What does this fold into?
Amino acid sequence: MFLDTSGLLCLFNKAEPSHDSARSRYLESRIRITHNYVLAEFVALASVRRIPRIPTLTYIQDLVLNPDIKTIWVDESLHREAMTLLFNRNDKTYSLCDAVSFVLMRKYFIADALTTDHHFEQEGFRKLLV
It folds into this structure.
């Protein structure tokens, strides 16, 4: 399962409507992958949602150290692949973070995303949260 920004927020914040579902899906999955652009986006999203900074940063740090989660570090090659995808999907409003996610999901043959983001469905993946 791919861990997207909105899915991580649902896991982190018990006040999120999809918190229980996110927790169940997370615990059921044996494969958990994310990337550092998702982590950067999470910090920004948490700030916008007025979630306190220290718990947010601690959560991100814990995710990176968690042996059950594979964190991919975006290098120049992966960044360029994502940019190519964005140029090829000019009719979509995907973020660069989304594009990196889609490239990685295809590379690792992952169909499911812990996300509420409809862009994953537009790109042919299954979003696991409402």
Summary: The chain has a mean pLDDT of 98.
